[in-house]
Amino acid sequence: MTLPSVTPVACACLSRKRPPIGGRRQARSRCGVRLVDDRDNAGCVCCESGLHVARVEAVDELADRNANIVLAGSDGSGRAENDGALQKTLADKTPKDFHWKSAVYPDEDHGTSVLRGYYDGLREIFFDWHVPTDQDGKIIGGLQGLEAHYRELSARYGYEIPAERAMNNLGYQLLADKKVAEAIVVFKRNVELYPVSANVYDSLADGYEADSKLDLATKNAQKAVEVGTKIDDPRLGAYKEHLKHLIAKANASGKPDLPAKSSQ
Q: Residue 65 burial (CB < 10 Å; 0-12/13-18/19+)?
């Protein structure tokens, strides 16, 4: 997945072969951000003696790209002093919307701090990924809150982040709470937003089935099969079984219903 406006720099051993700049060595991250050290003997932001970065160039450029920097390292000689200098530099130069964090892992070495740094770095960068929920695990604000969250998330990361799965989960949560009418509203909204997904129709069929509207349930199950066939959905078999179940249920109720073109 490409994140065009997010630049993570997390505990990566950078090249020590860069030429000095004005008597200082230069380290360049995988995203091309220059990290310049005032010490001649350091060219890596992740090394045995800790983080030696005393200055971050192109901070304004990073801010424009909505960047995140997460720097991590193992403990060692001069670690606390250098880390303090780094934090002060970043704190003094941090523009609005520029997110950064520095961490020390005293129980890790040069090799193991890399793995832990990437893990913690990704958690820090995507700190706002999940939809906010209350103490009972319910989405705060319901459907409107969920849509607002994904609008803000998409704006922050610079591309549209689909809410289909989260919206689908919300619909089933409402079904479990016996809030069938609200669940149907959520499922219909998912169909509206993601009409090329087969699963959204299958879920709406579940909603209508729970509301004893077998005709609409069958129509949406048929639509799930049609779309699933078109896009080669790996769950196509499950959609077909769902459709068979609904047709049999309709026949047993004395109200057989043939799939029609309309799906809602």
A: middle
**Cβ atoms of residues 242 and 221 within 8 Å:** yes
Could you tell me the pTM of the whole model? 0.66
- Look at residues 233, 163, 242 and name the one whose alpha carbon lies nearest to residue 198: 233
CA distance 80 to 59: 23
Q: Which amino acid is at 135?
A: Q
56 forms beta bridges with: 35
Q: Are 173 and 21 in contact (CB under 8 A)?
A: no
Cα–Cα distance between 148 and 85 in angstroms, integer? Answer: 39
pLDDT digits 0-9 by tens, 221-261: 999 999 999 999 999 999 999 999 999 999 998 765 555 44
Which H or E run contains 101? strand 99-105
Give phi and psi for 70, each to the nearest 5.
Answer: -125, 110
Instruction: Name all domains of the chain by residue range, CATH numbers in brackets.
Output: 26-125 (no CATH), 142-252 (1.25.40.10)
Give the number of residues written for the chain: 264
Q: Is 261 exposed, middle or buried (0-12, 13-18, 19+ CB in 10 A)?
A: exposed
pLDDT of 106: 82
Backbone angles phi, psi at 177, to 5 degrees: -90, 10
